[in-house]
Every structure is written in C-alpha cells, then in structure tokens.
Design a protein that fits this description.
Length: 456
C-alpha cells in the first residue's frame, strides 16, 4: 500500500466572498421541532465532509461552482429547513426557524492539481483552506445549517467540501440531500426521493420512561491524567484495510470465531484492542466502545415506520464496557474483544431507540460518555462516492477527519480504493503522537508487516 495525501503539499486557495444561497422559490415560513434524538448534546456540532472530482470530457467549459450553486437554490425548495436557523426553546428543545435565510456558499480556486494530492484518503493537507471557517458561522443557534465550498483545481477537477450541523441529519440523511442536489445539478427538476420531516416519530413518550441500560450516557468523570481531549500533540492518521489485511486479522482469531463475524465487527475489535494498548491505561480502568447503529430498515419504530425520505438522525450508539486489563490481557486475544463487540448489535431494538429518546427528555439532552470512550460509525455503504454532479462519481468522498466537535475519539469507516485500485475501507484515527506510534507498532506486529498509512 502506498502512503497518500502528502503532508508537505502546500498550495494557495483564492476565495470569493461568502454568500448565502436561499431557496429559488418561496417556502413555508414556520417552526419545525427537531426530534428528541436529533437535539441531544452529542449532536450539537459540525461534521466536515469532502468529495474530490476529476475533470470530465463532457463537462469541459462548465463551472462546477456555478452548476452546484444554481442546483442548491432549487434543492432548497424541497429541503427548505436547511435554509433556516436553529432556535432553542424550553428545556433546551431545538427547533428550526424556516426563515429562508440561506445556506453558506463559498466559491474558490486552488493552484494545485488533483494528482498532487497523491492517493486520496484523510487527513488532507491544507484542509482548512478547502472548507474555510467563515467568522460567526460555527455556532449552533442562529447560524447557517450547511456550509459548502466548491474549489476549482488547475486540472479541471474540483473539490466539494461541506460542513453540516449534525442536529439536522445523520450520514444517510446528508447523503440523501447530496444525491438530490446532484440530481438537480444534472438537470432534474426535483429529487427522486421526496424529503420527509416527521421528526415526531423519534420523540419521547408521554410520560417518558427509560427502559434499557444506556452505558453510552453514564455520567463518568474523565480522569485528568488520561484526558486526551486536552492533549495538544494530537495526530490524525488513516489506515486502509483491503482483503489482504482483513484476511490477516481473521487468521488471528480462534477457529470457532473466524466465520461468525462481519467485517465491521472484526475491524472494530482489532482496532479497539490496538487503541487501548496504545493508550497505556491501568488494568482496572474501564474502557467503553460505542457503535453507531442505523434504525432505518426496522419494520416499526415506536409503532410507526420510518418512511423513505426521512433525513433526520435515526441512529443510536449502544455501548459496551470492560476493563483495559481484560481487553488487552495476555490471556485474552482479539477473540475476547470480538465477542464484546458482537454484543452491541443484540442491544439494538425499537424499544432501545425509544428509551434513548425518553432519556434525553428526562436527563436534559446529555452528551455521550467521553471517559476512555471510542465511538465508531460504519459509513461504508452510505454512498458518499455515488454523489455525481455531472462529473462522474467522486474518487474519494466521506468524512474529512476523525473526531466530532472537540472530542477526538470518534472514527468513521468509509469505502475507498487504494493506489492499486483495490476496494476496501479507510479508517481515520486521532491519538496523542506517542500513543499513535504505539498504535501503529501494535498493528504492524499483529499483521506481521509494516502498515502504510496517511498522516498529518
């Protein structure tokens, strides 16, 4: 595997003045309440996405910024809440003021070609130039809910970067919006899937009642000596796992476990164990893993189905807890970690999702537990790369970096091709620099060969 995203790449980006793109036609002026899943504290943050597109012969002479900006105004007629602003009501309840103020849009040019980035996987050099932080646009309340920057490249390709307010949508939700935007950019008059609001489907019961155990929301203090949020010397690196790496990890399992797990479960167990070893925790320290699970696809939810087109947060992240000593002890192989990871899926049920919504109302919409926690979100099949504005599919598309808000312990699994064209998963990890060195060494040892990665 080749190292990608050369960290020494430097280029200049010239940006035009930021502007607000409003819906192309009048839209309803109303207030729309977010669901009790949407407005939890752990979703009150911005998530950055990035898509890289090469030039395309059929699009020569067409300006991607103009095409996308024009399509955006028309897409917002259907997704008009995105053009509004958040307001906070009683008991921290969030709602959207559908004011049609618009989405933040920035047009830019960079003196660099797509090939100069090398093989594309996060983290990306000079990313802050590809999604410029416009002053006073980063907040939750009364700020733009989407921020888009289209950066044209010297080669005729372009980079589409987006920052989304997580209270408005999850991964599948934002991809649904982006595919609608892309379809309109290619000439359609409306989305193929009509957006559905219906956030009341994921509201608390009356009266609310917590009926499940939620280790993901336990109130646990972060010990000062291992608070990686406060560590200044943080490093982001991503790792590609193709068939060769997956097979090597599977071979390390006891025979009775090799065929009974998914690729996601296998990778999560492997990485959680390596990450815990790298952090050098005490054996008695509790460690927590949370896996994001999509509630879509379940037949019913609180007596109501989640309809096609729903673009709100329909995810929960059940947690399992063990000790560092048990997870990485000499007598416990990756098989122990795998058995714990597999337990998470069994926690998922319609009642579990309802219990989360009820917990939010009872406990004032708390954040997830951060102490010695790692959260993983499998976005491999969400379809980021399938977003086609007319220039074909993206050569890379997905979450731009590890972490969420100020918490570095979140990793996203995104589909990707390596330099040889081999399909696999790229996973970005954020750790203190010394811990990252130990993490890579541990992975190399388990895979019995050096593991190439990209880093910043």
């Amino acid at each position: 595997m080749n190292q990608s995203s050369p960290s020494d790449l430097v280029f200049t980006v010239k940006r035009r003045q930021p502007e607000l793109v409003a819906p192309a036609k009048p839209t309803p002026r109303e207030f729309k309440l977010l669901s009790d899943i949407d407005d939890q504290d752990g979703f009150r943050l911005q998530i950055p996405l990035v898509h890289f597109y090469p030039s395309h012969p059929s699009m020569v002479g067409k300006d991607p910024a103009h095409v996308i900006k024009t399509a955006l105004a028309h897409a917002l007629v259907f997704y008009y809440p995105f053009a509004g602003r958040l307001r906070e009501g009683h008991a921290r309840k969030l709602m959207v003021d559908c004011s049609a103020q618009g989405v933040l849009f920035v047009e830019a040019d960079a003196d660099v070609t797509l090939s100069q980035f090398g093989h594309l996987q996060p983290p990306f050099p000079c990313f802050q130039q590809l999604l410029y932080k416009v002053p006073s646009s980063e907040g939750m309340i009364d700020c733009p809910l989407l921020h888009i920057q289209v950066t044209r490249l010297k080669c005729g390709g372009f980079i589409f970067a987006l920052q989304m307010n997580h209270t408005m949508c999850d991964g599948p939700g934002v991809v649904q919006f982006l595919k609608a935007l892309a379809k309109i950019a290619r000439g359609a008059s409306e989305p193929s899937i009509q957006p559905v609001w219906l956030r009341k489907l994921l509201n608390a019961r009356d009266p609310p009642r917590v009926t499940c155990t939620h280790y993901e929301y336990q109130q646990v203090a972060v010990p000062p000596h291992d608070d990686i949020e406060e560590t200044q010397d943080m490093v982001q690196r991503s790792f590609f796992f193709g068939p060769t790496q997956i097979a090597a990890i599977r071979q390390s399992l006891p025979h009775h476990l090799r065929d009974g797990c998914t690729k996601f479960e296998l990778l999560t167990a492997f990485l959680w164990r390596c990450r815990t070893i790298a952090l050098q925790l005490e054996p008695i320290d509790a460690v927590r893993l949370m896996c994001v699970i999509n509630a879509r696809g379940k037949k019913t939810l609180g007596g109501l189905e989640i309809p096609e087109g729903y673009y709100g947060n329909a995810i929960v992240f059940p947690a399992v807890v063990t000790t560092a000593g048990k997870l990485i002890g000499e007598n416990n192989s990756i098989g122990y970690a795998l058995e714990i990871v597999k337990r998470i899926k069994s926690e998922m049920s319609e009642e579990y999702v309802q219990s989360v919504a009820d917990l939010m109302v009872i406990r004032g919409r708390p954040c997830f537990t951060k102490a010695r926690s790692w959260i993983v979100s499998n976005l491999e099949h969400v379809g980021f790369r399938d977003v086609d504005f007319g220039w074909g599919k993206a050569v890379f598309a997905g979450i731009a970096k590890a972490g969420a808000g100020g918490f570095p312990g979140v990793s996203f699994y995104v589909s990707c091709e390596n330099a040889e064209g081999e399909e696999g998963i790229v996973i970005c990890i954020c750790l203190p620099s010394k811990a990252m060195e130990r993490f890579v060494k541990e992975m190399d040892g388990m895979l019995e060969k050096p593991f190439m990665h990209s880093s910043l």
